[in-house]
Amino acid sequence: MSKTATPEPESLYASAPKIYPREVSGVYARLRVAAVWLLLGIFYGLPWLRFEGRQAVLFDLPARQFHIFGLTFWPQDFLFMALLLILAALTLFFVTALAGRLWCGYACPQTVWTEAFLWMERITEGPRARRMKLDKAPWNGEKLLRKGGKQFLWISFALFTGFTFVGYFTPITELATKLATFNTGPWETFWVLFYGFATYGNAGFLREQVCKYMCPYARFQSAMFDRDTLIISYDETRGEPRGGRKRDEDPKARGLGDCIDCTLCVQVCPTGIDIREGLQYECIACAACIDACDDVMDRMNYPRGLIRYSTQNAMDGKPSRVLRPRTLIYAVLLLVLFGIFTFAIANRSPVELDVIRDRNALYREVPGGFIENVYMLRLLNKQQQVQRFSLSASGLPDLVIDYGADSLTLEPGEIRTVPARLRVPRGAAEEGRYDVVIVVTSLDDPSIGTRHRSRFFMPES
Q1: Residue 245 CA: distances (Å) to CA of 254, 344, 392
Q2: C-alpha torsion sign, points 329, 330, 331, 335
Q3: Of 398, 408, 407, nearest to 434 (Cα)?
Q4: Strand ranges, E, within 212-348
Q5: Number of C-beta neighbours around residue 223 at 10 A
Q6: What are 96-123's pLDDT values in tens digits?
C-alpha cells in the first residue's frame, strides 16, 4: 500500500536577495548627487556656524531654549512648532500630488545616506559586477581588505553622523573637546552611539528594506495620487513587444518595440523593481531607470523617453492638468498657513506674561476704603539680554497695581513669578466683574512689552 507524500509547509517569509544597484550617469543622477552634497553639507556644516557669539542652530534642552540663528524659541512657543509640522506635511502632500515621490528620490534622509554609503562601497569594492563576484568568492586577503576597508569607512561615517546629530543638542565645539578627552557624559555617549548605529544599520544594511517595509509613506501615497500626478512611467505601447536585436536592425521588421530587454533599468534601481511592470509602491521616483534607458536609446539611435516622467492621462493620450482641485486646495492652504506662520514669527513678543487670579477670594476690602483683587503674574524674558520691566494696569478708574517694587529685573531666559494686587476705591464701580488689562513694558527698550486681559470683581457698594 503506497503512502501519500505529505507536502512540506510553505514558508511564510522569503529571504530577499541582496540588491546591487548599478552606477548610472545622466541628468537625474547629477541632480541626485547635487541633492546629496547639498543636504549632507547642511546637516554636517550647520552646527559649526556661529551667530552673534553662539552656535547658530542649537536645541538646548536643559535650558529649554531652541536657538535658530537670530530667533530663540521656548516651550511656550510650541504653537510655532505645530504650525511648522503642519506646513511640512502639507508641502509633502502638495509635492506628492504634483510629482509623486520626489521627496523619496532626492531628499529623504534614508535615500541621501544610502547614496553616501553606496559611494563608499563602490570605492572599496568596485562596480556592480565586481561587488557581486566579491560576495560569492571565498574569503581571502583581498576580500578581507576590501570588506574591512568598507566597514571602516561605514563605521567612521556613521559615528561622525551620530556626533553631528548630538551636536545640535550639545554645543558641538564643547562636544568635540569632550570626545577628544574621552570626557563625554553617559547620555551624550549613548546618543552618539545610538544614532551612529541607526545610520549604519539603515543606510548600510537595510537600505531599500526601509523604503519597502518600514516607511509608512509608501503605503498611503496612493491616496494622494491621481491620473494627473507626475510619475515615472514605461511607455508600453512604444516598448512592447520587447526583445534583443542588433543596433542597425529595424525593430519593426521583426515585430519588436523599442525596448531591447537589456534590464539595465532593473539593475540601476535601488529598490530592485522592474518599472516595465507598471507603477509600484516600492518606486521612490529617483529616475535612475530614466537615465539608464535614455543612454540605451542614444546608443540604439532611438528617441529618448521610453521610460520618462509622465502622467497616467498623458500615457493614455489624454490631456494632463497641473491646476486641479486637489493641488489648488493644497496650494491655498500652504499660502494661508505660511502667511500665518510668518506673521506670528514677526509679531512674537519677546516677553511672556501669564496671569492667574487668586481663587481663594474673589475680592477683599483693605484699609483706606479700597477693593483689592490678588493675582499671580508669571513673566518670562525671551531676550538674550537682561531686561528691566515695569507693570501697569488699566480698565477701571483709579486702578493701581502693587507688585512690591518699582521694576523687575530678569536675566536672559529667566522666569519670575510675582504676586500682584490690583486696587480701586470702593465707589469706583458698581457690583460685578470688569475686564482689566495688565501691561508689561521694558524700561530698557519701550518697544518690548506685552499685555494680558483678566477679570476684576467688585462687591456691592
Answers
A1: 9, 64, 89
A2: positive
A3: 398
A4: 231-234, 307-310
A5: 9
A6: 999 989 999 999 999 999 999 999 999 9
Helix (H) or strand (E) holding 351: strand 351-357
* Burial category of 271 from C-beta neighbours within 10 Å (exposed 0-12, middle 13-18, buried 19 and up): buried
CA 27 to CA 1: how far, in whole Å? 69
Q: Which residues contact 308 (CB under 8 A, 6 or more apart)?
A: 232, 233, 235, 290
- Please name the amino acid found at residue 346: A
Look up residue 34 and give its three cell numbers.
Answer: 547635487
Q: How far apart are CA 78 and CA 73, in angstroms?
A: 8
- 48-63: pLDDT as tens digits: 999 988 899 999 988 8
Among residues 285, 258, 263, 279, the alpha carbon closest in space to that of 96 is found at: 285
CA dihedral of residues 268, 272, 278, 279 (deg, nearest 10): -100
Grid cell listed for 265 = 533599468
Domain assignments of the chain as residue spans, ordered by start? 16-348, 351-458
Q: pTM of the entire structure?
A: 0.85
Strand partners, 86: none
d(CA 447, CA 452): 16
Topology of domain 351-458, CATH: Immunoglobulin-like (2.60.40)
**Which three-class secondary structure state does DSSP give residue 227?**
coil
